[in-house]
Structure formats: C-alpha cells, structure tokens
Amino acid sequence: MAEAKKTLRITQVKSSTGRRFDQDRTLRALGLGKIGRTVDQVDNESVRGMIFKVKHLVEVEEI
To answer: Which of 6, 4, 8 is nearest to 39 (CA)?
Structure first.
C-alpha cells in the first residue's frame, strides 16, 4: 500500500518588496507573491530548501 505523502501549507506573511531578487523569485516558484496567499506543496528536500531561503517571509505548517 502506498504511503500518503506529507504536505506543507505555506502562507506568505511579509512582502517581498525590497528583498533580494532571488528571494522574490523563490516566492514565485513556491506559488506565492501576495501577502496572505496560501499554497499546499509536497514535503520534499527541494521545497524545504526554498522555504529555508524565504523563512522570514512565510509561515509553514504540516498537514
């Protein structure tokens, strides 16, 4: 039986205005871009790396 994949719910809580270009692009790659926007992403190493890069701009919860 296949294991259910873990999911992360990521919410942007701060603006990317005035941040480095790569941090803005990382938010866009995660599917964010506006304060209050929430996306669900599969929990894997690449997504965790992107979250680490913008950890001061987002809130993360496991679902």
So the answer is: 8
Q: Around Cβ 50, how many Cβ atoms within 10 Å?
A: 19
Whole-number Å distance between alpha carbons of 40 and 9? 4
Q: What beta strand segments (E) does the chain contain?
A: 7-12, 38-42, 58-62
- The dihedral of CA 21, 29, 4, 45: what is its sign? negative
**Three-state DSSP state, 63:** coil
**Predicted TM-score of the model (pTM):** 0.89
Q: What is the pLDDT of residues 34-55, one digit of tens each?
A: 999 999 999 999 999 999 999 9
Asked whether 57 and 10 are in contact (CB, 8 A), the reply is no
